[in-house]
Design a protein that fits this description.
Oligomer: single chain
Number of strands: 53
CATH topology of the largest domain: TIM Barrel
Strand order of the largest sheet: 1-2-3-5-6-7-8-9
Helix content: 10-25%
Strand content: 35-45%
Shape: globular
Radius of gyration: 28 Å
CATH superfamily of the largest domain: Glycosidases
Number of domains: 3
Distance between the termini: 83 Å
Number of helices: 10
């Protein structure tokens, strides 16, 4: 009987599989020979993240310096093709938007790849949003018309069996039946193509996949996943593609350490671990081809190409796994090829992570290397040494190190150093490597350094430089900005051209001499309430780098220590702890609203964490919470700078406008939110200040009472739902009158949420922390904030003296009592 049931089940499965497969063929697609596509490796590329931006004032920030591409837009892409082909990439899949948007960049890349003459390919990625068959058909037609004969004739436009490959990023605006109509119309006019659908878009299911396969030639992927999300998708997708649609293209995506834009709604990087885990999952799925997302998304911090902080580690990893994917012996080096990766910043209460990464070594006699990772301060003083470990470099090897950040709560930063022993050569040590800043209230950016041991420039005396006689590791008190003398008297051994830069908080402040022996005045801004750090950075023509120890700069206004509650998550049961830290290490942002600054909500704290009045956002985020970028005049209704009867300035909202402060704003743990308001109407609930992930919401109710709330995050890392989902709501005892100024303060100390009006406690309730609050944290002033940073205006009246502080302040510390 058991055997009979098994046979019946098998027959039923075959029938169902045949029925499904027959359904997919109800819309017959041309036969597809996948032979040339097998083993190809791609990366998606957004055309607005170009690799040739200068470092200052044009969005390039700190990340493009060593590329040194030409300014010519075509030859720049030629250099890209030449530089990156050797890493194993078949080509790039570049996005074209609605109405052939960004097609000029696509054409430049296409021509540049042709000039490179190394068969680097460019595939079409259509990021479209039309919701009708007619609109989508007309939209795609505009791109096809511009491409013209290139669709069939250009040697670098990717084709399979002569058919251009088209990747549809957002298929969800149309159903499968509608896509059949679109594809039929396009192919009737422009010829047969290969259509790939993004199966990672939206909420994919096996049912949706099977429907798509009635219209498309295969699947690819582009999206922002957690490791678990990718694993779940591949677990059900892989058997369906292999068993039900073997004739279709199966392209799987490897995801880099993706952090989406500046609202932080992406993945916690964990150095290279998630990237490597993603590779292993994809290789196990045995797809036809692999795509890696996403190329040069610098603002999204999901780099895979060599960049200023990361060296070329993600491409080196790509190169290794691409060889494995193709069944080739991974490329090797004669001597150990070692890298050290560390976070650019770590939050007190969390783990500090480090990696030593080694690639295969072809030295036959000895592939074994002993490594010891050391942690030092800026002067080179040893703070901690991990136990020595042995790495056998017959394949990609990674040694991972974890240590609680509160171990170093007294230090502003720690710098790794690697000691190695290989064969009988004795022990060697690297110079001090770039620092991990130990931050108190919020990780101001989610990046990591990765430096190759063999590409470090040796400097004779790293301490031989100063700013107005302040040496590395020391603190320079600066109260007013202006010219300061930078002196350097060190030497180094390197060949080729050299660039020396003065960096402020990791970003280039000035480019100076071609030698580390110089005296030069540098225009330095006053730190105000911020703690800044300065470094010298040296770089040669090969991309080898040296980063000096830091000189710290602060004003005299925030000296002394404070007690800060932190949420320690390094044990199985997270707990609230208290640490003594320098007051200057606690970030805050302050918006006085006392003068006309156009469309910019100007931060006076010294952190330059500016906001944008009206719709839109600043261009990009820098280091140390800094927001940079020009703000245009705008035409959207928003707010106006006015003078009160006492002559003081303030910002007045008309109920139709709001201001947005981008990611890295709402502090996830200990925090204080202050704002002074002068409401102008009763009878309607008005949100005065709100954050995208519900860390804070302050509302003036229709009857004049103030209500504030904080939720356990409704959205977690990579868009996942956190386990905690709760809301605490406070309400004031007093009413806030119209046409008069009232100070509101909301304080969170990791145990209780407290509401104050004019310095008087109104309400408090217990509230536990949630780590998901670290993600998606822009703030809107004058309204609420929906995911991820869209303002929903509602407040009518005046606001001023806005302060967002990374610590639970006492009432005596409020701006207005």
């Amino acid at each position: 009987m058991k055997i009979l049931i098994q046979k019946i089940s098998l027959i039923t499965m075959v029938i169902l599989t045949f029925a499904t497969h027959t359904s997919a063929q109800s819309y017959p697609r041309p036969a597809l020979d996948k032979t040339t596509h097998l083993g190809t490796v791609w990366s998606h590329a957004n055309p607005w993240f170009l690799p040739d931006r200068p470092r200052i004032g044009a969005g390039g920030g700190p990340d493009f310096a060593w590329h040194r591409f030409t300014d010519d837009p075509v030859n720049m892409w030629k250099q890209v093709a030449i530089r990156y082909k050797d890493y194993g990439l078949t080509g790039l899949c570049m996005e074209i938007n609605d109405n052939a948007g960004w097609i000029n960049i696509f054409l430049n890349a296409l021509e540049g790849f042709r000039l490179a003459d190394n068969d680097m390919q460019l595939a079409i990625h259509l990021g479209l949003r039309k919701s009708s068959v007619e609109g989508m058909t007309a939209n795609i037609s505009k791109t096809m018309d511009v491409l013209g004969d290139r669709l069939t004739n250009h040697p670098n436009l990717y084709r399979i069996s002569g058919r251009p490959v088209i990747f549809i990023y957002g298929p969800g605006t149309l159903n499968a039946k509608e896509w059949k109509q679109v594809i039929s119309s396009i192919e009737a006019k422009y010829g047969s193509m290969v259509w790939l659908v993004n199966i990672a878009h939206g909420s994919p299911t096996p049912k949706l996949l099977r429907e798509y396969m009635e219209a498309f030639d295969g699947v690819s992927m582009y999206g922002c996943w957690t490791t678990n999300g990718q694993r779940k998708l591949l677990n059900w997708l892989t058997p369906i593609m292999h068993n039900e649609f073997p004739e279709k293209l199966f392209e799987a995506a490897v995801h880099t350490n993706y952090t989406s834009h500046f609202h932080y709604g992406g993945m916690d990087p964990h150095l290279t671990k998630k990237y490597r885990d993603s590779w292993m999952m994809v290789l196990k799925a045995k797809p036809d081809s692999i795509t890696v997302t996403n190329w040069f998304d610098v603002w999204e911090n999901s780099r895979i190409m060599p960049s200023y902080e990361l060296g070329d580690i993600r491409l080196r990893i790509l190169q290794y796994y691409a060889d494995v994917f193709r069944g080739q012996a991974p490329r090797t080096t004669q001597s150990p090829d070692l890298y050290v990766a560390n976070l650019t910043s770590a939050l007190l209460g969390q783990w500090m992570e480090f990696e030593v990464i080694g690639f295969p070594c072809r030295y036959e006699n000895d592939k074994t290397v002993k490594v010891r990772l050391e942690l030092c301060d800026d002067t080179g003083k040893l703070l901690y040494a991990f136990e020595e470990r042995t790495m056998v470099l017959d394949k990609l090897q990674v040694e991972r190190y974890l240590i609680p950040s509160e171990t170093f709560s007294a230090y502003r930063a720690v710098r790794p150093r690697l000691a190695t022993k290989w064969g009988d050569r004795g022990e060697g040590k690297t110079p001090l490597l770039p620092p991990t800043n130990i931050e108190t209230s919020l990780r101001s950016h989610l990046l990591f350094w990765c430096r190759a041991k063999q590409d470090l420039i040796k400097v004779k005396d790293p301490m031989a430089w100063s700013i107005d006689n302040s040496s590395p590791g020391s603190t320079y008190i600066l109260n007013q900005g202006g010219e300061r003398m930078v002196l350097s008297d060190s030497s180094f051994s390197t060949k080729g051209n050299r660039w020396v830069r003065v960096l402020r908080n990791g970003r280039e402040l000035a480019k100076t001499t071609l030698s580390l022996k110089f005296s030069e005045p540098i225009e330095m801004p006053a730190p105000k309430g911020a703690l800044n750090w300065y470094n010298l950075e040296l770089e040669n023509s090969a991309g080898s780098r040296y980063l000096s120890p830091s000189i710290w700069v602060m004003s005299e206004d925030r000296q002394g220590n404070v007690t800060l509650p932190i949420w320690s998550i390094v044990s199985d049961e997270p707990e609230v702890k208290y640490v003594e830290v320098e007051a200057v290490r606690v970030p805050f942002f302050q918006y006085d609203c006392d003068r006309n600054t156009g469309k910019m909500l100007m931060d006076s704290s010294g952190y330059r964490h500016h906001g944008r009045i009206g719709k839109g956002h600043l261009s990009n985020t820098g280091y140390n919470h800094e927001h940079i970028g020009r703000v245009g005049p705008g035409t959207d209704p928003s707010a106006f700078f006015l003078n009160d009867s006492d002559g003081n300035g303030y910002l007045e909202f008309d109920g139709k406008g709001a201001a947005i402060i981008q990611g890295g704003t709402a502090f996830p743990y200990a925090s204080t939110y202050e704002i002074s308001i002068k409401p102008m109407r009763d009878g309607v609930d008005e949100v005065i200040l709100g954050s995208a992930n519900n860390q804070i919401r302050i509302t003036r109710l229709a009857d004049g009472h103030i209500q504030t709330s904080r939720k356990g995050a409704t959205e977690g890392e990579g868009g996942t739902k956190p386990k905690l989902n709760f809301e605490v709501v406070l309400k004031s005892e007093v009413k806030v009158p119209i046409a008069k100024w009232t100070n509101i303060a909301v304080v969170y100390d990791l145990k209780n949420l407290l509401l104050y009006i004019n310095g008087q406690l109104q309400d408090s309730k217990p509230l536990q922390p949630s780590r998901a609050s670290e993600w998606i944290n822009p703030i809107v002033v004058g309204g609420d904030c929906s995911f991820p940073f869209n303002p929903k205006p509602s407040f009518k009246g005046g606001v001023k003296k806005i302060r967002i502080y990374g610590r639970n302040l006492s009432p005596k510390e409020f701006l207005q009592k």
